[in-house]
Design goal:
This protein is mainly α. Helix content is 75%, strand content 0%. The mean pLDDT is 84.
């Protein structure tokens, strides 16, 4: 085995937490897609939703590969995490507000991915997969950040022509 047992246990817990964060991400993007006011953000929201689904599958594969079948549980959907996530977006209608919630979620997920690197130095395939996720989520983060900045500039210059 490449990782020592204590590191492996930590890694499996972090991968499980990351899977749950991707599940939350999936639910948030889906909820945002239900809003009528999203207009030009719809394509990004659809891409975010599909990437969350794909990333969950890939994270699940990593989890299954590294987990201990005697101690670690299977990954399951957490209804309470999902309902809290939906509630965060429920009353928001402005694109910038929705983008801000999604941006914060992406920021937390980026931190989770980065925290995994100390565990995977000798696992090139896992590192490659997580690098791809990190790159794509960084793109979502940047695009959402621009949406939030656009709204803030409109607020500070409400009568600009």
């Amino acid at each position: 085995m490449v990782m020592e047992d204590s590191k492996l246990n930590e890694f499996v817990l972090k991968i499980s937490a990351l899977w749950n964060e991707q599940k939350k991400r999936e639910v948030l993007y889906l909820e945002a897609l239900k809003k009528d006011s999203m207009g030009p953000l719809r394509k990004l929201l659809t891409q975010g939703h599909f990437s969350a689904l794909l990333f969950q599958k890939e994270i699940h594969w990593i989890y299954d590969y590294f987990k201990c079948f005697l101690n670690d549980k299977d990954l399951v959907n957490s209804a309470e995490v999902n309902s809290d996530s939906v509630q965060a977006l429920h009353n928001l209608e402005e694109k910038a507000e929705v983008a801000d919630v999604l941006k914060k979620t992406e920021g937390k997920i980026l931190q989770s991915y980065r925290s995994l690197y100390k565990y995977i130095e000798r696992e090139p395939e896992t590192k490659r997969l997580l690098d791809e996720h990190l790159e794509r989520i960084s793109e979502f983060y940047e695009i959402l950040s621009k949406q939030v900045i656009v709204k803030r500039s409109e607020i500070s210059h409400p009568f600009a022509a």
